[in-house]
Amino acid sequence: MTQDREMSGIVNQGFKGHALVVEGGAMRGIFAAGVLDRFIEREHFAFDGCFGVSAGSTALASYLSGQRGRTRKVIEDYSCRPEFINPWRFARGGHLLDLDWLWPITLTELPFDFDAFEARGIPLYIGLTRASDAAPLQLKADRHNLAMAMKASCSLPLAYRDFVSLEGEAYTDGGVSDSIPVEAAWQAGFNEITVVLSQGAGYLKSAPRFPALMRWAFRRHPELGEAMLQRHHHYNRTLNFLSSPPEGCTIRLIQPPPEFPVGRLTKDSALLGQGYEMGAAAADAYLEGLVS
């Protein structure tokens, strides 16, 4: 088996199942934290597979391990510390988002329950982007690769100045190549897909404002730079898929309300708390809709 097939983790499984897909969005991931914590509270694990990108992958991991509040703690506490988000460090050539600090400290001080994750038995596919050619890949997570795969999926290019190595290959933020892997879930055989978005209804991603600067920034990785320039096209096509899914595919959306107050780098604890509660309320509405 080639490395690409091993790393993709996706084959057409030939069955009809229900997938949960969670978008990333940095601090906007507090919405998904609220949704998934409510799912834990109400013991809702009625999915045959999960697909997560960036912050969505970390939220799903804690959901599958049953660790209510872990993702919220990471976002509202650790991610707000200057050791993680530091524009002055970035201006001096360091990371804007220092995953090399965030990952070890959260794994140590908020231990992840790998046994519970494994016992859940629901596959988790983590979206990655291969740095060499910007190819989208879905890695089936296990206790051995989970931590580094999540780190790779969260490693926003430029904001985190390195790549993450998995099996000798360099990877970066899964959102670069596939921000909402709903089509990957469909192609894998899932015909019912619940999608947790980090943007509200009506959102469309805009093109980069300075394409020449983007190409210069990625001059050593031109295919990755081109993927960044084309990202909005792929994202908006995915939104079309969500609004008009193919025959036989049922899509259910859970997304922030128009008044959602959290941006990608919001650190205001009150606003993050509001965003979390909005996620919990959206989960309640979703679950009530399932039984109505």
What does this structure look like?
The chain is an alpha/beta fold and 292 residues long. It contains 12 helices and 8 strands. Strands 1, 2, 3, 4, 5, 6, 7 and 8 form an 8-stranded mixed beta sheet that branches. Helix 2 (30-41) packs parallel to helix 3 (55-64), helix 3 packs antiparallel against helix 8 (146-154) and helix 10 crosses helix 11. The longest helix has 23 residues, at 269-291. It is globular, with a radius of gyration of 18 Å. The termini are far apart. Mean pLDDT is 92; it is low at 1-13.
What structural class is derived from the secondary structure elements?
alpha/beta
Main sheet summary: 8 strands, mixed
Task: Tell me the total number of β-strands.
Answer: 8
Radius of gyration in whole Å, from Cα?
Answer: 18 Å
Beta-strand content bin: 5-15%
Distance between the termini: 46 Å
The overall average pLDDT, rounded, is: 92
Instruction: Name the overall outline.
Output: globular
Helix and strand string, N-terminal first?
A: HEHEHHHHHEEHEEHEHHEH
Low-confidence stretches: 1-13
Secondary structure tally, helices: 12
**Portion in helices:** 40-55%
